[in-house]
């Protein structure tokens, strides 16, 4: 109900004019929209606004046509009942608008307690996930979506007989570790390939949680049986959440910074390998404590910085161009002069949450490079923000340069800890391109490109170093506090 017409008019104006100040769309009164879609649970709502951080439509029962926003952190569709209605295109036959309900967001959790499923899985008539029309499928490219809960224990199977789970859903959701199916019956699964782009189908970290009395039935049910080793009871969900929590330091960044300010060395409770979350442009990125009192202070060569942190996975899931670094005859090929590379890293640093960013310490870093005569040299640079790692720091190359070191975390069997994949999956290539991670080194005098870590199909040695490869890499970063 609109109680203040002028206020509503002003808000609509802000929304349609893409004003940066309009970050939340909140319409709790909306239940259904009259439309000519021909489906009572489908409306023509399309929202794609980069300024939106939150969309709150808590009572809307219908499926929107598209909700999209690369800055969306929160989406409330708790009364959504069904999605995907076979007709691929927008009712006005504009074939550029392919339905996909929820895509390209930064959401981390999705709770749809009244969701029944779909009666007409998209794309219609195709079981090939590489079909060109597959981009119609719902919930795709939500890279940071981690926890999904569907349905509730009070639903009646007799009322939802024709509803299904489309196994193409959640494509490229590289961090989807927890999928809860709360239905008191087995929801039929059609197709399975979308799971293979999540930790559930590709990796050992993802699971499907169902009511305890249905676990064995799900394990032998059509298509669900492909994931029988990943199916657990819902009671196991809380245990797994707690186990994951135990991988993290039981501290806040404020507490860590306080401890650092009071102690010359961090105590045993700061165990190497423990994790912390840093929000970068509001995306939660996991970092591992890889070293204590190892990095040299940029302000005093006789002092070290208390803690060094390195990302668990890439900062973004879109490869970054870090070649064509504008080297010239007066500049050695080294990270210190790699303009494009440094600009990409600086952009990441600018998105750090303030509590971390304001306490990052400048450090003296070492890397491999070449001078204008082509002679191999090791170079040092002052890094005031975040930085990519070097091969020596990771323990996969040695150095005779004074000051260069391997982080203590990597000194014992480094390759068991250096296995970069897409998010929490074990996916080591995409579209036929092996995953590459940019290093800080430039060990090839004939190239303007940084050394890369490239994934390979080798369980004992899952990555290899490539010198100066032009492949666009993903970025993994570190910082010191």
SSE map:
Layout: H1 5-16, E1 24-26, E2 46-48, E3 54-56, E4 66-68, E5 74-76, E6 101-103, E7 109-112, E8 147-150, E9 165-166, E10 178-181, E11 189-190, E12 207-210, H2 215-220, E13 231-233, H3 235-245, H4 253-262, E14 275-280, E15 283-292, E16 296-297, E17 307-311, H5 339-350, H6 354-357, E18 363-370, E19 376-383, E20 429-430, E21 433-434, E22 436-438, E23 452-455, E24 463-466, E25 478-480
Parallel strand pairs: 1-3, 2-4, 3-5, 4-6, 7-8, 8-10, 9-11, 10-12, 12-13
Antiparallel strand pairs: 14-15, 15-17, 16-18, 17-25, 18-19, 20-21, 22-23, 23-24
Which features would summarize this protein structure in a list?
four-stranded antiparallel β-sheet; 6 helices; alpha/beta; single chain
How would you describe this structure to a colleague?
- Helix content is 11%, strand content 20%.
- It has a five-stranded parallel beta sheet with strand order 7-8-10-12-13. The chain has a four-stranded antiparallel beta sheet with strand order 14-15-17-25.
- The radius of gyration is 25 Å and the shape is globular.
- The chain has six helices and 25 strands.
- The longest helix has 12 residues.
- The chain has two domains: 241 residues; 228 residues, no CATH class.
- The mean pLDDT is 92.
- With 481 residues, it is an alpha/beta fold.
């Amino acid at each position: 109900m609109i109680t203040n017409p002028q206020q509503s008019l002003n808000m609509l104006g802000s929304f349609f004019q893409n004003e940066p100040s309009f970050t939340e769309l909140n319409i709790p009164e909306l239940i259904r929209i009259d439309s000519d879609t021909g489906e009572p649970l489908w409306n023509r709502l399309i929202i794609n606004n980069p300024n939106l951080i939150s969309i709150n439509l808590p009572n809307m029962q219908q499926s929107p046509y598209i909700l999209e926003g690369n800055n969306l952190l929160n989406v409330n569709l708790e009364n959504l009942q069904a999605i995907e209605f076979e007709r691929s295109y927008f009712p006005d036959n504009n074939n550029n608008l392919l339905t996909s309900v929820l895509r390209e967001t930064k959401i981390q959790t999705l709770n749809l307690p009244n969701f029944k499923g779909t009666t007409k899985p998209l794309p219609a008539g195709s079981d090939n996930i590489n079909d060109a029309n597959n981009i119609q499928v719902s919930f795709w490219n939500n890279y940071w979506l981690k926890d999904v809960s569907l349905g509730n224990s009070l639903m009646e199977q007799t009322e939802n007989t024709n509803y299904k789970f489309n196994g193409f859903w959640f494509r490229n959701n590289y961090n989807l570790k927890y999928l809860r199916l709360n239905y008191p019956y087995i929801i039929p699964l059609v197709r399975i390939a979308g799971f293979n782009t999540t930790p559930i189908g590709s990796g050992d970290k993802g699971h499907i949680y169902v009511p305890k009395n249905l676990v064995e039935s799900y394990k032998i049910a059509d298509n669900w049986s492909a994931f029988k080793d990943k199916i657990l009871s819902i009671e196991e969900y809380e245990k797994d959440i707690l186990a994951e929590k135990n991988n993290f330091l039981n501290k806040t960044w404020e507490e860590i910074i306080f401890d650092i300010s009071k102690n010359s060395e961090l105590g045993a409770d700061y165990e190497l390998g423990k994790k912390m979350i840093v929000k970068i442009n509001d995306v939660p990125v996991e970092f591992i404590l890889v070293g204590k009192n190892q990095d040299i202070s940029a302000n005093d060569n006789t002092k070290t910085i208390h803690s060094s942190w390195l990302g668990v996975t890439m900062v973004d899931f879109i490869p970054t161009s870090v070649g064509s670094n504008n080297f010239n005859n007066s500049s050695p090929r080294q990270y210190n002069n790699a303009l494009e590379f440094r600009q990409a890293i600086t952009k990441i640093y600018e998105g750090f949450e303030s509590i971390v960013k304001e306490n990052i310490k400048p450090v003296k870093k070492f890397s491999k490079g070449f001078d204008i005569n082509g002679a191999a040299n090791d170079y040092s640079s002052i890094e005031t923000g975040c930085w990519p790692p070097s091969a020596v720091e990771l323990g996969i190359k040695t150095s005779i340069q004074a000051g260069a070191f391997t982080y203590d975390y990597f000194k014992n069997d480094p390759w068991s800890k250096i296995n970069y994949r897409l998010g929490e999956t074990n996916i080591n290539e995409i579209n036929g391109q092996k995953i590459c991670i940019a290093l800080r080194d430039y060990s090839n005098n004939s190239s303007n490109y940084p050394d890369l870590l490239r994934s390979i199909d080798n369980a004992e040695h899952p990555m290899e170093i490539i010198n100066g490869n032009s492949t666009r890499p993903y970025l993994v970063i570190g910082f010191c506090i």
